[in-house]
Amino acid sequence: MTITDELTYTIRPAAADDAERLGEIFYDAFESIADAHSFPNEPGSREFTQWKVASMLAADGPAALVAERAGAVLGSAFIDERDAVAGIGPVTVAPAAQDAGVGRALMEAALARQADRRAHAIRLVQTSYHYRSLSLYAKLGFVVREPLSVLNGPPVSSSIPGIGVRPARPEDIPMCNELCARVHGHDRGGELAEAVAFGTARVAERPERISGYATGFGYGWHAVAETDEDLIALLGSADSFIGLGILVPSRNAPLLRWCLDNGLRLVQQSNLMTIGLYNEPSGAYLPSIVY
């Protein structure tokens, strides 16, 4: 379905041949905002954004919407629809078209799509120094649920007595999904299954049970655990922290302190924001850049 707003922005589904232009906008949009605030650019390179957009457009789980006017592509919004909770991001607008309602048009179309899908909840991670996006998301009904600290640094290479860490296997997925449902009230089985297939997922084990899992370690992955100790065991097994870093819930003071005491440094602050169903987590976790 094509939606046209009062400013004549046409919102349509993205196509494979949009990939190159959307990759350019992805990088340029983040670069312009980061440079204006003297923060690092979240996507590391133009090559990364080209690869990421192409891979999302080729995958089954994400949906993508494009804003255009007079045939010119101005921006896009990606929505992860693999699980019951939808995650929005990235949402990017070409620098020359910012502050003209394009981002709002994309977000409203994304929310309308999730309403049609009857999604249980919608979530995103907002970069806290970008006040315009925070204001827009708040106006659209999103609520800040958790301040997040983005941390990066050298791998810690530590272990916790009594907790083993190993690569995740397909047969681990049901137990990991059950753990995620206990902590969050929902699972993220689509993401987990993909991470297991790609070989990036790991599990933490106590005697006779899985007590935590991570789909990977960095900006695009999430982790769930029974306790901080289980999550720390997973983090201690990481070979590196990919991208801008890991997102640590800032209110989890013991976990944040452990990261800082072990050489990770604070890169920036973000916010987890939600619409719809939200349960205060009953365990330890790291969100991904989507939620």
Structural class: alpha+beta
- The SSE string, one letter per element, is EEHHEEEHEHEEHHEEEHEHEE
List low-confidence stretches. 1-6
For the biggest sheet, the summary is: 9 strands, mixed
Q: What sort of overall outline do the alpha carbons produce when their principal axes are compared?
A: globular
Q: And the CATH topology of the largest domain?
A: Aminopeptidase
The average pLDDT value, as a whole number, equals: 94
Query: What is the CATH architecture annotation of the largest domain?
Result: 3-Layer(aba) Sandwich
Number of continuous helical runs: 8
CATH class of the largest domain: Alpha Beta
Whole-Å distance between the termini? 26 Å
Strand elements, count? 14
Percent range for β-strand residues: 25-35%
In CATH, the homologous superfamily of the largest domain goes by the name: Gcn5-related N-acetyltransferase (GNAT)
Whole-number total of structural domains: 2
- Give the % helix: 25-40%
Please give a structural write-up.
It is a single chain. With 291 residues, this protein is of the alpha+beta class. The chain folds into two domains: 3-119, 3-Layer(aba) Sandwich (Aminopeptidase), CATH 3.40.630; 151-267 and 280-286, Gcn5-related N-acetyltransferase (GNAT) (Aminopeptidase, 3-Layer(aba) Sandwich). 33% of the residues lie in helices and 30% in strands. The protein has eight helices and 14 strands. The protein has helices spanning 19-37, 46-58, 102-117, 131-139, 173-184, 189-198, 228-236, 253-261; strands spanning 3-4, 10-13, 62-69, 72-80, 85-93, 121-127, 143-152, 164-167, 202-206, 209-214, 223-225, 246-249, 265-276, 284-286. It has a nine-stranded mixed sheet with strand order 1-2-3-4-5-6-13-7-12. Helix 1 packs across helix 2 (46-58) and helix 5 runs antiparallel to helix 6. The longest helix is centred in the N-terminal third of the chain and has 19 residues, at 19-37. It is globular. The model is unreliable at 1-6 (pLDDT under 50).
